[in-house]
Amino acid sequence: PVPAGFLGLSFEAAALDQIAQYSDRGDLVSLLRSLGPGVLRFGGVTADENVAFAPADGPRPAWASRTIDAAQLDAIGVLARRSGWKVLLTVGLAHFEPAAAAREVAAAHRALGPDLAAVEIGNEPNAYGQHGFRALPWIAQGYEEEVSEYREAIAALTPGVPIAGPDVSGSGIFIEWGEEEALSQRPALLTGHHYPLGCAQTPPPSIEALLSAATRGREAHSLDTYLTVSHAYGIPLRIDETNSVSCGGVARISDTFASALWATGYITQVMAAGAQGINLQGNPANCAGYTPLCASDPAALAQGALRAQPDWYA
């Protein structure tokens, strides 16, 4: 059996305001309904680097170039109810602000109610050390200590909100990070990412590599690693961010029929392995990348006139 809501899309937190506008215009609601129930995830690197929840009584933090506010979350709630999709929301952890995260979760819970599937705390936190957000050595235990402080702040305003994590960048470190999350937090959902090819890898990404038996074998091993932790602790797993090539994809690979073939294979691989679901990452403003849906120009983006890309057909 395939879990309800197995299929999903993932967008950057910075795109939430754009997606929120499609609650009452454009094609997104009907497109989502055409797939049946699913899960919309908002996260990605922007959730940590430059998006903050807009304070009601003051300026946004100096580090933030974008904000999410209660009105946008209300619109996402309308989108969820009209489409039948639930929402997985990432709150930023790189800039350690548990009180602000708690206010964001409270606003999301008011807007979404039961359509708020879970909250993730931080995006790819295993990489904080190498990106300068935390002093090295940065290990899973330090992350879990910070998550516990966030959970305490969230619970003070909105008790009982499901937590998902650790939302790591790949399965290579999931035995350590996933087990620490399972033991420390008992989350409702374990999450992690998968990209079969890297944008800066040597040799460079190619269609041949994307569709190769070697890539499929590595994906099977990755899923086995993820699900080893999931099964050991009885916590479902979701591959909550994935696509063909990291860094937004590569033109003439990620926007071609080859990408539809890869995605069909990987979706069914994740299904057969027994994971709870999968979210294909996308950017509605970039048709040359790996996005399942996009707009052909700024006017179409504003109107919500989205067109299907290769991943959508998968």
Summarize the structure.
It contains twelve helices and twelve strands. The chain has helices spanning 16-20, 28-34, 45-49, 70-83, 98-112, 140-157, 174-185, 207-210, 213-233, 257-273, 298-303, 310-313, and strands at residues 7-12, 39-43, 51-53, 66-68, 86-91, 116-121, 163-168, 189-194, 237-242, 277-282, 293-294, 307-308.
Report on this model:
With 314 residues, the protein is α/β, with parallel strands linked by helices. The chain is built from twelve helices and twelve strands. It has helices at residues 16-20, 28-34, 45-49, 70-83, 98-112, 140-157, 174-185, 207-210, 213-233, 257-273, 298-303, 310-313, and strands at 7-12, 39-43, 51-53, 66-68, 86-91, 116-121, 163-168, 189-194, 237-242, 277-282, 293-294, 307-308. The strands form three sheets. Strands 1-2-5-6-7-8-9-10 form an eight-stranded parallel β-barrel, surrounded by six helices. Strands 3-4 form a two-stranded parallel ribbon. Strand 5 (86-91), helix 5 (98-112) and strand 6 (116-121) form a beta-alpha-beta unit. The mean pLDDT is 97.
